[in-house]
Amino acid sequence: MKKVDPIIKEFSKPFIKDIGRVLSAIKRYDRIVVFRHLMPDYDALGTQMGLATWIKDNFPNKEVHVVGDNHVTFTPRLFPVMDELPESWFKEPFLAIIVDVGNEKRIADPRFKKAKFKIKIDHHPDVEHWGNISIVNTAAAAASEIVVSALLNMKGNYVLSKDAASYFYIALVGDSGRFQYSSTSAHTFAIAGELIKSNIELSKIYQNMYLKKIDDLKVTAYILNHFHVSEKGVAYYVLDSNIQKELNITTERGKENVNLFSNIEGINAWCSITQDDNPKEPCWRISIRSKEKAINGVAAMFGGGGHAQASGAKIDTIDELPKFIAALDELF
Ligand code: AMP
Fold first, then answer.
1. How many Å lie between the centroid of ligand 1 and the Cα of residue 222?
2. For 82, 143, 218, 299, which has the most beta carbons within 10 A of its beta carbon?
3. Distance, CA 197 to ligand 1 centroid (Å)?
């Protein structure tokens, strides 16, 4: 019998039957696709790639794919380009494993609907129940924490390769805010410890994750010259389409500076507000982070959701911004 760290065993105990069913499903299907949420972050991409790599490493005869939108800066620096699968591929039976996303609307490729069998593994609040198997634990700092815990608790001797472990580590570091958020637990560190045993190169991973270019400093300079702080210590900056063009950045890049305000005395929460001109859904995207208080309730009031200390929301017009900041101010 392989030895599993007692903390990792305990964490996955409530799901142990489902973990057995996940392994059976992986063994049963020769065609597998791993899905995750739209506009992916470190956790979405890291968990997706980590799991796909683990399946390929341990079941080399299976056809395993990853689908969804590529990231403006993480692809191909941190993660490979996603697979492009024709419609015809989805006509034959396949298994869909969907990670790091709670609501169906946010799944990055709608063709998950065509899967014969669906597995959901997530750490967002379980507001929508779906999937033939659903493993949801909102206490986890990252979706990768749940997935790696499940893989380690599976019966059998499976390898956790350096590549798979590196992806999972990026996911864990990303969604725990480098082990800073209150969701970080002894289990989070136990999982990090297991990943490190796969000989991942820590300093290389961090350098790659947080790599910046000289031009990025100009964006930072703009934000430092134009941010606002509300009466109750909510810091925020607004990047409209014109300034994004001037700074030569995308909407997604605009939010990457949000944590500039993370360790500032008197600042309780901090947000980026970036205009998205996409004609499909023109809006202002908001990334919200918080020192202590849970901000996901406010995010849910403004068309979003997420975690206690890191959430996303959106408003249709900039006129709604004062209402949004006032809702955050109410918390403090
Ligand atoms: P972001 O600010 O976009 O990096 O998002 C922070 C966190 O909130 C991530 O874990 C997202 O998955 C989550 N999140 C963002 N937008 C939403 C949404 N509309 N519904 C649920 N969760 C979200």
1. 25
2. 143
3. 30
The reply to whether 172 and 319 lie within a common domain is: no
- What pLDDT is recorded for position 127? 83
Cβ-based neighbour number of residue 306 at 10 Å: 20
Query: What is the pTM (predicted TM-score) of this model?
Result: 0.91
Residues 6+ apart with CB under 8 A from 107: 35, 36, 37, 38, 98, 101
- Asked whether residue 42 is domain-assigned, the answer is yes
Q: Based on the fold, state whether residues 56 and 138 are members of the same structural domain.
A: yes
Is residue 1 in some structural domain? no
Full residue range of the structural domain in which residue 175 is found:
6-209
Q: What's the gap in Å between 92 CA and the centre of ligand 1? A: 32
Which atom of ligand 1 lies nearest, measured to the CA of 41? 4
What are 254-307's pLDDT values in tens digits? 999 999 999 999 999 999 999 999 888 899 999 999 999 999 999 999 999 998
Q: Are residues 171 and 259 in the same domain?
A: no
Ligand 1 centroid – CA 287 distance (Å): 8
Q: Whose CA is nearest to atom 20 of ligand 1?
A: 305
Number of domains into which the chain is organized: 2
pLDDT of 252 > 80? The answer is: yes
Ligand 1 binding pocket (C-beta < 6 A) is: 37, 41, 124, 287, 304-307, 310-312
- In terms of phi and psi (left: phi > 0; alpha: psi -120 to 50; beta: otherwise), the region of 87 is alpha
Average pLDDT for 60-77 = 96
Q: Say if 150 falls within a structural domain.
A: yes
Can you tell me which residue has the tokens 């500032």?
Answer: 264
Q: What CATH code is carried by the domain that includes residue 290?
A: 3.10.310.30
Q: What is the distance between the alpha carbons of residues 26 and 46, in angstroms, rounded to a whole number?
A: 19
Nearest atom within ligand 1 for CA of residue 100:
12
Least confident of 26-30, 140-144, 212-216, 310-314: 212-216
Q: Which atom of ligand 1 is nearest to the CA of 288?
A: 2
Shared-domain flag, residues 205 and 222: no
| Mean pLDDT calculated for residue range 67-93 | 97
